[in-house]
Each structure stands twice: as C-alpha cells, then as structure tokens.
Amino acid sequence: MKYKNLQGCNLSAKLLASAKAAFAAACITMCGDLAQASPVISNIHPDGTYLFQSSGALSFTAASSAAITNISVQLTSTTLPGQSFLKVLTLTHGLTVTGPSNNEGVSAALTTNMLYTAVIQVTDANGQATSSSVSFDTIVPALTFEAEDYDYTSNGASGLFIDGPQTNAYRHLDATEGVDYSSLNNNHQFAYRGGNDNGLNTETVGDTPRAPYVGTTNVDYDVGFNNGGNWANYTRTYPAGVYNIYMRGADGNGTQADAASLSLVVGGSPSILGTFSVPAIGGWQKYSWVPLKDSGNNLVQFTTDGSVQTLRVTTDQGNYNANFYLLVPADTNPPNTSVTITNVYPDGSTMFQLNSNFSFTASASAGIDPSDITVQLAATNLAGVGSITNLTAGNGLTVTGSSTSWSVSTSLTSNMVYTAFIQVTDGNGGSSSSTTSFDTIIPAYTFEAEDFDYGGGLFFDNPQTNAYTLNDGVSGMDFINNNPAAYAYARIGLSTETASDTPRLTHAGFQDYDLGNAVGGNWGNYTRTYPAGIYNIFLRAADGNGSTTDSASMSLVTSGLGTSSQTTSKLGTFSVPATGGWQKYTWVPLRDVAGNLVQFTGGSVKTLRFTTDNGNYNANFFLLMPAIPIVSDFQPDGTALFQYTNALSFVAHSSVGITASNIMVNLDGVNVTGLVLGGSLTSRTVSYPVSVNTYHTAIVTLTDSVGTTTSTNSFGTFNSTNYTWEAADYDYGGGRFFDNPQVGSYAGLSSVPGVDNHQSDLGAQPFNYRLNSPAPSTTPSGDLPRDQFGPGTTNYNIGFFGGGSWCNYTRHYPAGTYYVIGRFAEGAAPTEAILSQVTSGFGTSTQTTNFLGNFSIQVGGWSTWEWASLKDGNGDLVKLTLDGSTNTLQLSGSPVIGHPEVNVNFLMLVPTTPALKLKMSVSGGNVAISFPTVTGSTYQVQYKNHLTDATWSSLGSSVSGNNAVRTVNDTVGGGSRFYRVQVQ
After folding, report:
1. DSSP one-letter code for 439
2. Can you give the three-state secondary structure of 155-211, one letter per residue?
3. Is residue 707 pLDDT above 90, yes or no?
4. Which of 318, 347, 759, 920 gets the highest tally of CB atoms within 10 A of its CB?
5. Is 121 left (phi over 0), alpha (psi -120 to 50) or beta?
6. Where is the composition biased (Polar residues) (predicted)?
C-alpha cells in the first residue's frame, strides 16, 4: 500500500485485481486531519502598553504544535527628532533564539531613546504562518514635567514651585494671572488646576499611560484650548547637562507650524529658545513627540548648570494639546552623513500621479554601495487592502550610475496609494532617510461634493471646475441642509468651505471646496450622465474627530427628481476614519451591509443622493473606479456551527470579466484544482467538494484587469445529528446525570466536590447556570447558534477552568467509533485540556481514569470560539470506541504548570470514516468496483488507461453514500485500465 498527501486528505493506492491481463488500481481519498492551527506569538516585551519601556532587547515567544521553521522581525527604529531606520532581522541575522523548536524564545537588541515598531512573522513546519505588530519606545527621561504643573501661588506668594514633584502634586493649586501664567481663553475648563476659576484650561488625557498612572488612582491631564498669547512658567532645579526638549503634543486639526515656543526666563524677561510645530496624526488625544527647534530647523540644545531656572511655554499659533515635556541628553557629536536623496517621483505634490515607476537619486561624496540602498514600499488599494515590500538592489530595485550618484527605480502598479520609505547609508556609515506618499490612481470619473443639483433637478454634464458656483439649489428638491453655515462656494444649498486637500491638476488656478458642518439628515442630489460600466464609488473625506461608522450614505433616486416627493433606493454607506484633521483627507469606499464594495452601473442619466447619517466628516469629491472583483453568496457561510454539506460554493463577480485561471481557492492551507465553474465571465458560479464533519478555512483570491481581492471564510460541515454534550452539564448530586438532556436540564443543580467535579480556582464567578459549590463559572457563551438553542434559551459555557480542575460527564454514549472535538475559547496564551475515561470509582471520591488525549487550544480571545480535536501523544487524532453502555468521560484543565485556564462550550462525537475495502469483479468485458459508503459523503470512481497519463478521468457521475456497499460498473476493451475512488 502506498500513501501520499492529496489536498489535505490521505490518498491510498492499492493493487486490486487483473482484468484481461491488465491490472486495476484503486486510489481512495479519505478525510484526514482537521485544519491546523497557526503558530502563536506571545510574551512580547516591550509591548507598548505604557511609555518609557527602556529595554536592551525585544523579546517574544514563538510556539506551534509543529516545529518553527522561520522567524523574521521587521524593525523600524525612529529617533525622537523623527529620523527612521529599517532593519529586517532573521534567524541568521540579528535574532537570538533559544528553547525547543516548537516553543522558541526570541530576542533582538534595542537602543535606548528610540521609538520602535516591530512586525513579527512566524512560520511553522506545516506551512502555517502568523504575524504580530507592536510599537513601543525605549526612552530614558532625564526629566519630565507636566504641562499642567506650572508655577503656583500660596499665601500671597507667586512663582512657587515643587522640585521633583510627585504625580498630581499641583492638583488644585492656585496661580496668579500675569505672574505664573496668562490665559486668553474663556473655556473655564479646570479639571486639574484653577480652584478659584483661574489658570490654563486642563482636561483628562487619553495618551499612552506612563508607569505612575498604571494601576493607581493617579489621573493624567493635558493643557488644552490653547489660544495665541497663553503662557505658563515652569520653575525647577533642572539637572545639569545639555539637553534636547520635546513636547508630548496632539493636534486634531491640520499640522501647526510654531504652535508654541519655549523661552528661558531670566530676570523676569523671556528669551526664546525655539518653537514646537505640532503635527496632526489622528486627533486631539493622539500624541507624538514634538522637538523644540530653532529658526534654522535645528534641534535646540538647552544647557543648564543644575541651578533653579524658569522655562516659559507660550502659545503662538495654537491648535494643540500639551501633555508633558521631556528632557533627554543631547547628542553633541552627531554622526555626519554626506547622503542626499533627491529627484523623488512621484512625489505626492498632486493627486493622480500615474507613473509606471518610482524613482529617485541617491548621492554621497563618501560613496554608496548599492546594497546600502533600501526602499520599503507600502501599497494599498482604494478598498484599504495593502501590502508592504522591502526592496533592495538585488530584489526589486534597479540601480544605475556611479558610487557617488545612483539613479534608483522600482515598478509601480496603477490605482494604488503608496508610501515609500527610502534609506541610504554612505561609505562612512552615515545614513539618511526620506518618506513620501503618492498615488497612481487613474480616475474613471469624479464629481465634486459641492456640485449638487440646482434649480430643482438641473445639472451640468461633465462640468468644468467650479461650474456650479452662483447656481443655487432648491431646498427639498436638490438638497436639504439642517445646519446652514458658511457658503464659501457662493451658492445656496449645503454648507461649503475652502479645502486644502492634496491638489489636483484639474484645480490648477482654482480654489478647491468641500462640504462641511455635516449633520444628520442633510442630503444633496448629483445628476449626471455617468459613464458606461460597473463601478465602485469612493468618497474623498476628512474627519478631525474619532472614526465614525455610517458617516453618510449613497442612494439612487428612483422617482420624483425635481420635485419635493422623491423616492430612493439605498446603495451603501461611507464610514469615515479619523484622519488626523479636518483637512487631512483619505479615500473612503461605499460598502453594503455585508461590508462588500457597492457596485454601481452607469451608462445613462442617473441621480445619486448623498445623505449625512452620523456626520463627523468633510466631503471633498467622489470618485468612480472600475469595480474590483468580489465574492458573494459563499456557502457554507460560517454563520452557524453545523452547516452539513459536502461542497462549498460562491459567486465571483467581475466588472470586466474573470478567467478561470484567476479564481484561486486555498482550502485548509492547500491551493486546490478542479473548481467547477458556471455562469458568465462577469458572474462566475464556483463550487468545490469538501469533506464533511470537519471544519475548514477557505481563502478565495480573485484577479482581473482591475485588481485583486481576497476573501476568507471559515465554516464547519458538522452534522447536527452528531452527539454533543454541554460543558456546563457535568454530573450533579454525586454521580447523577441525565441521558440526552434537554436544554437547561442541569440549571441550578449543585455538584459534589471530588465526585462530580473538582475546582482549583475558587475565585471563579459568576454562576449564571450552575450553583457555585466549588465549580467552574457558567456564563452565556455568545458562540454561533445551534438548532437546540432556540428563542428563550441560552447557551452557557464553563470558565475559570484550568490546571487541577475537572468535570465528569456521564451518559449512555452511542455505540461506535468517534473522533472527539471540543469548542473552546482562550484569551491569555496557548493551553491544553485533557479528556480521560473514568474506569472505576464512579460516584465516589476515589476514581481511576484512563487518559485518552489532549486538546491543543490556541489563543484568540475569551469570547473567540475555536474548534480543537482530541489527539494522542503523537499528534494523531484519537479514535474513541464506545459500546453504548453508561460511560463517564472526564474533562480536565491543562496539566502544564503555568498554562492558563480556558473557557469550554461543548464537546462532540464525530463518527470516523471506515476504511475503504475495495472489491473488484470481472465478468467478460464488464468490471464491477464495489466499496462501502457512509451517508453524507460522495464517491467518484476515476480511471486512467496508463498510470503515466497526466490526469484521471471520471467514470460516470458520483454516487452518494447510504451506509451500504455501492457498485459502479465499467466496460473495458482489450487494454489496461487503472481505477481510484475519491471520497468527499
């Protein structure tokens, strides 16, 4: 007998019999192991949960049921002034690995006073991969002082200060206007200071915490509502040395040059040291490090002799929140570099810079080795799906020229948004880097948000830039505006304002506008002869607050255009993310309720209506792009646990047509062939056989001339008639049980410790289903539905179930041979559960058990449920044979010390597939192939005339299993023929 692997199942071939001097071979495809779990990355340190995690090394654990075969870390380090450097660390370059191959400890060296982002990727021997990202810093502060801890006044004395203050030491301390601070604000928000309604405005902060604010009652604050002219003094005994100074600042509007300045106060007179220019990176509570720089854009070096000095922060242009200030030792001998990076193109100076290549010049008087030129290219399509590629001279970069001046280029793809990070090192070791963002979009059609209909349904087809100015809309016919504000575009209708988005060539010499002040219920109609084709719709939008779900929606006006009685059909919604400011724009796709990109068909005069739902956005313009391929109608869809079927199916939609070779299905880690296709090039029906009574993950990749999309669907093909028992329905009252219990039969029943269960964690709670007589907690599981849990019933799980804990489950289990599968959730780290069979002492406190196997449970979340199969010590699926009599199975927590507890929902017996024993009989020219079958499986007999033939051919149609022997006949001539049976 010969074995090999075929599409994740075991393929056996056996020489059977001879017919007319020819041999016939049978090949049987059987259901094999269940889907393999991905490796797990855990114990990451530093983990970025708080600031100032100084460490000499990044460390983590990579674990898998199979051996770890590859680990890489993409480590981006950024200096506090903002210079970034990239390293790719591997097992042979930069990573230190210890421990067994299935549980490796990994570390990499770090440098102090740096900001890091690490992207960790781990692959195991099964080909399964996982990744994890973490951002952190290794800053060692020389001194920090809080923005809210400015000088105070007490008993008539001003200019007082606390040296080396404890956290929140200045809380409720008064200050004197014009002496300790000056405020031109009228907000009167004094969350921290200002007991007498004075001081700078303070509010609680949402920054990454620092150690004094973690696990304590301390509250972090910032100084906000900063108007030009505000100032505050900060008197301290600053430590002797030479320092750079940084503000921990946030800006919810656009980046603000000279947001504030810092001065040294001597004899009551301030002398300016430099200014802080606060960038907008995502909102008023999204903080970054802002360096103090002089007028030449150099880092200010603040020299202090260790005496008492007063620094003054003055708000200049404002638009920032200040959390605290940081002093770090200045590098008085920075490395010199001769590197310059010039002639970057596309450079992002305008939108829609279609170019087939990205190029730049890298120059250095000290010379550059081509191997020291690196480009990290992040490419994202308009739907937000992207990838990051690291390019070098030997991998993706074309480098020509001389050592002192290299021309560098790499290819680009159209209709993508790119960020390119360039890093170049010269012969002296000096480095320079540059980052630029641009797009290669080829617009099919655009229309401006401010160009809604006018005059009661009138419109311009393909209007010139700003063509709608002075053409007023009619309320209730062309627009509705529930929040009239500014009309910068000079037309009555929706509120408009000037926009400062990345310029477009179509607007050269013209002012760009957006729709602002958007509130729920606002809408505008956009009538055009939209171009023929099938399109996705994108909104160019900005959000200066937090991300908003369903910011706005798009509908098709179906009747009543130009009247006050219009009907619409909703197409989808736009959900605008937080972009870092009200004039920092991004692309937002129109999606349907299932999250798919909406497909809009043009080719005639149509009216689209744009409606504000939850608001919080500015809208610049709309973009139509040829629709990317999408998957719909995936079955089984994974919305229930038991979706018994032997085939998956879906529809592949393409606006331009998709070939069969560009529809790829990866099933349980294997790229499959033999997809069954139907329908048209623009709407392909696709199906493929899958094994029953198991769980699957299918990854569908569609590619056409517009782009590539990937959809992932996980589902189970378990039969709802499989025998299951609830983890919460363990024995009660000293070995008592219900056979085939109804839902809720064990509710409120108590167990006898040491007889029905043992609970090692006595802190378990709550007990929503069973009594708390030392027992695991019971809570609603929130897992996917099962038929028996209908309206008015609740599915419970057990929790706080770990090492030393066990529960007995006594039943008349059905006779047969089974695999055992459990439903688990784990939120801490990979762990295990054990299943045993009680062999004696049932109903007593003295029981003996026979170990059956263990469940390997991966981390995913305390409410993220996963399947796990019972396996023996060799990693093989356990086959449990039961005779139909009363048996007690015992589930236990992890036997490994230190491994975490687990949540358990239910366990299930899955009938094993009996081994196929093929029989062949020959009578004259007829060959009969007989084999046992199982209900729920399908069987296809295939043949070859020569084993060297490239493919197998199907013999007739497939036959369905019926728990009996099925026979398929064939008529053969005088040659040879070989047979196999494929089972799904």
Report:
1. E
2. CCEEEECCCCCCCCCCCCCCCCECCCEECCCCCCCECCCCCCCCCCCEEECCCCCCH
3. no
4. 759
5. beta
6. 770-781
Q: What is the DSSP string of 58-82?
A: EEEEEE-SS-EEEEEEEEEEEETTS
Q: What is the mean pLDDT of residues 354-380?
A: 96
Picking from 901, 912, 913, the residue whose alpha carbon sits closest to that of residue 727 is 901
663 Cβ contact list (under 8 Å, min separation 6): 652, 675, 677, 684, 686, 700, 701, 702
Q: Which two tokens stand for residue 617?
A: 């956005």
**What is the third-level CATH fold of 340-439?**
Immunoglobulin-like (2.60.40)
Tell me yes or no: is domain 51-137 CATH 2.60.40. yes
The strand ranges marked E within 316-356 are: 321-329, 340-345
Mean pLDDT in the chain?
91
CATH of 723-911, one of 2.60.120.260, 2.10.110.10, 3.40.50.620, 2.40.30.40: 2.60.120.260
> Which residue shows structure tokens 């505050």?
232
Token couple for 530: 């939209």
Residue with tokens 């920054």: 207
Residues of the chain with CATH 2.60.120.260: 143-329, 445-626, 723-911
**Tokens matching residue 934:** 């199982």
Per the CB < 8 A criterion, the answer to whether 871 and 877 are in contact is yes
Written as one letter, the residue type at 910 is V
Supply the pLDDT for residue 110.
97
Is the pLDDT at 557 greater than 70? The verdict is yes
Render the burial of 950-964: b for 16+ CB within 10 Å, e for the rest.
eebeebeebbebeee
pLDDT at 26: 34
**Count of residues making up the chain:** 984
Among 2.40.10.10, 2.60.120.260, 3.40.630.30, 3.30.43.10, name the CATH number for the domain at 143-329: 2.60.120.260
What SS3 state is found at 372?
Answer: helix
For residues 798, 802, 808, 811, the Cα torsion angle rounded to the nearest 10 degrees is 50
What SS3 class is residue 501? coil
**Locus of tokens 């909703």:** 570
CATH of domain 2-31+917-983: 2.60.40
Radius of gyration of the chain (CA): 34
Asked if pLDDT for residue 24 goes beyond 70, the answer is: no
- CATH code, residues 445-626: 2.60.120.260
The C-alpha atoms of residue 527 and residue 468 are separated, in whole angstroms, by 13
How far, CA to CA in Å, does 64 sit from each of 68, 99, 125, 831? 7, 13, 9, 11
CA distance 901 to 828: 8
Q: Which CATH class is domain 630-716?
A: mainly beta
Question: Which amino acid does the sequence have at 518?
Answer: A
Burial 274-309 (b: 16+ CB within 10 A, else e): bbbbbbbbbbbbbbbbbbbbeeeeebbbbebeeeeb
Q: What is the pLDDT of residues 296-325, one digit of tens each?
A: 999 999 999 999 999 999 999 998 999 999
Residue 155 contacts residue 131 (beta carbons within 8 Å) = no
Over range 113-120, report the average pLDDT: 97
